[in-house]
Batch of 3 targets.
Target 1
Amino acid sequence: MTFFKHRVFYENPRYMLFIHMVVNDMLQLTLAVTLHVVSYIFHSINVSVCCFLLLMAQVSTMNTPLNLAAMAIERYVAICNPLRHSQICTVRRTHILIAVIWAAGLAPPASDLFILLAMQPIRFFHSSLQCYSLNIFRSPYLVYKNQASNSVYLSCVGLTVMYTYIRVLFAAKAATTDEASAAKARNTILLHGVQFLMCMLSYVIPLLDFVLLGLFPAKRTVILFVNYLIAYVLPRFLSPIIYGVRDEKFRKHLKGYLFCKSAFQKIAPTNAHSLKIT
């Protein structure tokens, strides 16, 4: 509501990418929790329904690190090339970038589904199984393919974020003489890096699950649940705090909706006046 109520947010590429990440994470958590509840209550569901839920969950999971890389590039352009930021980072190009993120996130799970359709008979999709990825996509070829694709995504996103954050850090040091401002910039970048590393767990967690389940098969439920909390829930809990609540402009508007209407009315005229001047 804070985002869509204010033009200063929904016409700003930085906040557009931020809200896209929040909505995507909401979708991912909803699907993941649904899959967990279904697996505990029903134990087995129709394979076609399970494939759809797994596909959407995997796409939204892949989207988060990709969106994080896109936000890093936007900050890199804003700080290292500020004169051309408004020309490079437009609303239209941000919409195209979000579409590219979804296409890139869809590619690996969609290829898994096409391979599954080619390998399994039609009756398999009318049967019922326990709904988790390794139970549906059983082929060793798919396991190796996913490990390879995750490695490629991990490398590309990791190098992108590392390069942009290092350049932003050097630019912040060079452009700032105030030690307090420089420290704030370094702390912000450090938080971004920590959150990025936590999001990267989504790429390596399938391999970790495979290893731990091989070593401790009797602890399957505990292993999957703990890894799910660490790799999927915790990073998405931190994202709104790092990118939303810590942002002064966003926090100022958010407080008006959270605490009381009168407090927001005191803020609103000031913002309207500044927008009018702009």
Note: The first helix runs from residue 2 to 5.
Target 2
Amino acid sequence: MGVTQHPPRAPPGAGSGTMSVFRSGLLVLTAPLSALSLRLVPILASASRIVEDTLYIHLQPGLSLTGSSQPRSTYVPATPEVYSLITKLYADADAHSHLDVRVLLTNIRNQSLTPQSLSSVQNLSHPPEVILTDFQTSDGGQYNPVKQRLERYATSCYSCRPNLISVLLYPEYEPMMDQSELPPWEPDLDGGALLSYSDVVVGGTFDRLHNAHKILLSACCLLAENRLLVGVSDKDLLENKMLKELIQPYEQRVEKLCEFLVDVKPSLRYDIVPLVDPYGPSITDPDLECIVVSEETRKGGVAVNKKRLENGLSELALHEILLVKDLGHGANEEEKISSSSIRQRLLGTLLQPPQKDPAQPSRPYVIGLTGGTGSGKSSIARHLERLGAFLIDVDKLGHEAYAPGGPAYEQVAEEFGEDILNEDGTINRKILGAKVFGNQERLKCLTDIVWPVIARMTKRQLNEAAAQGERDLPL
């Protein structure tokens, strides 16, 4: 696939020009973690103006891009401080909905706290076209040594696009300073390193993979040494989900999940299986050591351990993560970042272009509105009508079908008896309803009479709409 190279302009905050937009980018964060936490919001805002899709983030606190020697990536210990920063990165990135943020964990590990050099180059599913950094230096100019070292450093760690472009970000979070003058970063080990486990398990729907999912999965990847078992809800487990019709197919959810996991930590073995009951293999796999849960799903983790004991297996360590607030949630949406809220926001949007059926006439174009009572059918119908659509109210046609003189009136009266008629001869719908609802055989008898009649009435109105459309076409 060809890549269009965009000519670089002045970085945000460094001039009057605007930066061209790139599909993918790598953000190398070099500030000490304690300082970085306060700078994330403006840094991400600057990056979001440059990268339009996938933004990889590489944490290398204390990295210096000055001096004569070429900087190399070293291991960062997986501490609570590091995990908290990763959580904050994803939470702050939620303000930039167009960005698919992925914090890379290759150089973050919990087996050893001794810094070591990383030698192999990691392939990424969306090779970066631009390299960004928060590193600050007083050395200006488009081709200064810092940029050259940044590009060499990035390509020594990850697969990148040819003709890589580098950008030094200058978010307006504090006065300009030369980061090369800062003391070397030392990890805060007072809180200890995160515990690690050979095999870790987690479950979820993982619909429209979002930043709260990424926080959950990142915790799993940091805790797991060898294998991560992921159960993805399917079939019966989706029945009670809000707007289940809009949940992505299982295969699509798994594909997105795999791409993310292999990007952020390719060294792990990933087993992804469908979940058709609340437990899946978590209660039968003897190799599992830890289950990752949220505040909401902790009870499920406790239930898993109860089942494991019943099956003669050891209990799993429960690692609980906090829910992430959705600061932009609507009045009818959940307060946390959730797939349910995302699906609600899809209502009224075109999910996929209409598929042309050669067997169907091009005119009229028919839109069917369905839904339960109070779902908004009438409101949407009136809106479309104001836009010029020809409105066919099938409920109204149903009433006309068994009104006196209507095409289904005599057959309905004959089938269900004269006691369903009012004094004026109209059908008493309440009495008719009492005869059919709760009696599947009688209900089918009614629908067999009325539905074909309504279908014919609808067809006539469709033909009328087509004729009217032809008359209204400009000459």
Note: The chain has twelve helices and twelve strands.
Target 3
Amino acid sequence: YLSVNKTHCFSILFCCKSPSKFYKVCIYLHYIYITSAAHRDAPCFVDDLVAALHDATGKDGELLASSPASFGICSESDSSSRLVLSELSVGIRRNDRRGVEVLDPAAGIVESIMVTFDLPQSQLLKLKPVLVLAFKSPLTDGELDIIFSSQSLQPNTQSACISGRTLYILLTGKSSEGNVEQKWNISVQAKSPGTRQSLKDVLIGGKSGSDVRLTPLLLFSAETGTDTRQTASLSFLCELRRFLDASLPQQHAEPLLLRLDSLQSLPPLALGLSTSETLLAEIINSSAPTIFSFSSWSSSFPVRPGQLALSPALLGELGQRLEMNERQMRELVRQGMVPQRASEKLERLRQLSAFQKQDSSAEGTQYCAFLLLKALQMLTRAYSIQRKLRAARAGPSTRGPTCGLGSLTVFLTDLVSGLLGPQSTDLNNCRGSCAIPLNNINNHAVLLTYHIERGNVNERGPCCVPLAYDPLEVIVLNDEGSFLTSKPDMVAKECGCR
């Protein structure tokens, strides 16, 4: 019975004579499985929460207009919830994201609409805890108003309004003695009649095989000023992922699906203290698009920063290129092509990498600066291509579009669980007319064109095809170290008629 999976669980429910007898057991197993997986596969879970709380208020300490919906706060009249969110956010800002303590409640048991959490012994429980319920996926079926009731909450009854913009729900708990195990029983009710099924969908998923939507975490704001979060290197990687999410150009067309492991690759090259200067210089100066893959990356995997040993000359070149790409990125923000929040995350990345400080040779500093450079190069390249494509579409043409580069976006599906970003990339494609006169055409294509124009329909005409390619570079971090894998001839960069 311990090996029952989600599908088997629902099969048992279907076949047994007394489904209510097994409902609690099946949902219990279902909930344990999903909650454990959520933490195991989401190493940025806590870091993302801290970042969201940090960004909930502006520099003036006031809640942003979008923050209440993100945290399930119902209205202006819900002053207590707004105050809790504001105090958490201001405290995190004041302590530069330090002084945040967390506890993992044991997996919750869902029985009818009662949720039970088992809390471990901890002195943190003497502080005022905040129970955070994090959504794995947003609500897609309208809005849902919920009431939470429990003697473990303070106040005993609290409400939340869930919409498609809601990422978290905050419930304030009572402080208590931390030397005993506790069990929180929380009654959950929908305010409107007829929405009971929607409430179950939010808590446990409404269909066979669906994921539990909520993952619990106990949050404590400890005014200690110490950083008890995950390591600084993990914070850098999580911030890098958020920076890419905020900065990448928006895709308007449905991308093609591509399995990364189906592509040919050159042998992986180790990135570390023994990596040759020639290779590092080549990578730093490469314009090839880069994606970041952390294939063994999880909250149980202790992420260690990679280490590089750059010569003073190459270190100076890295710094110059980093500064140049940062200027380009800030210009994109100034032009409105990239959201303002990307500039704030870029500043945070500079602080975490510590590259601009006096000791740029500290452990992991050069490696973090290297990752940031490759991310910025990838972004500035993406926006440069976007500009060229827009200019080509807007240019005058009397014979229709001539042969040139076009966009071909693919979604990388093979490493989604370990992919830091981006999860989609533009590989370009060549399309357009090959009628004479043309640029970038060779003598054979000219002869083919004249041959076709004389009525020989049995020969093919010149085709618009790629003439040159860039590789797709994948930077991999796993429990064996850091590596660069190159997938050659992936990105079309020049077109012609052949």
Note: The chain has three domains: 44-221, 230-287+306-393, 404-497.
